[in-house]
Design goal:
- By secondary structure, this protein is mostly beta strands.
- The chain is about 0% helix and about 55% strand.
- Strands 2, 4, 5, 6, 9, 10 and 11 form a 7-stranded mixed beta sheet that branches.
- β7 and β8 form a beta hairpin.
């Protein structure tokens, strides 16, 4: 059974940092592509950042220079490092993992359950 567990959210003050994690558990899968999204109250879900199969990363303008994607293949974990947080970053953050199946070579996408980030003084 495949599971993606998100964690790392919390309540922080403006200017502080958080690191979100999404851990993939499931046999025969490898981390490949990732997209991070967020949804603020009463707003639509917004794409925040992503990494392609080739390793190229991209970010929405509002987080460029502050957020960074990384991964640890050994730990089957994707990370979103968020620095210099501000109130506009308050949202539930979701990861979508585009995994690679070793057995059939196909891509399978899995979502994390979301983790709340609140930035407030």
């Amino acid at each position: 059974q495949v599971q993606v567990v998100a964690s790392g959210g919390g309540l922080v003050q403006p200017g502080e940092s958080l690191r979100l994690s999404c851990v993939l558990s499931g046999r025969g899968l490898r981390l490949n592509v990732v997209d991070w999204y967020r949804q603020a109250p009463e707003k639509q879900r917004e794409w925040v950042a992503g990494r392609t199969r080739d390793g190229d990363t991209s970010y929405v303008d509002s987080v460029k220079g502050r957020f960074t994607i990384s991964k640890d293949n050994a730990k089957m974990t994707e990370y979103l490092q968020m620095n210099s947080l501000n109130a506009d970053d308050t949202a539930v953050y979701y990861c979508k993992l585009g995994t690679h199946s070793v057995s059939d070579g196909r891509r399978y996408d899995y979502w994390g359950q979301g983790t709340q980030v609140t930035v407030s003084s």
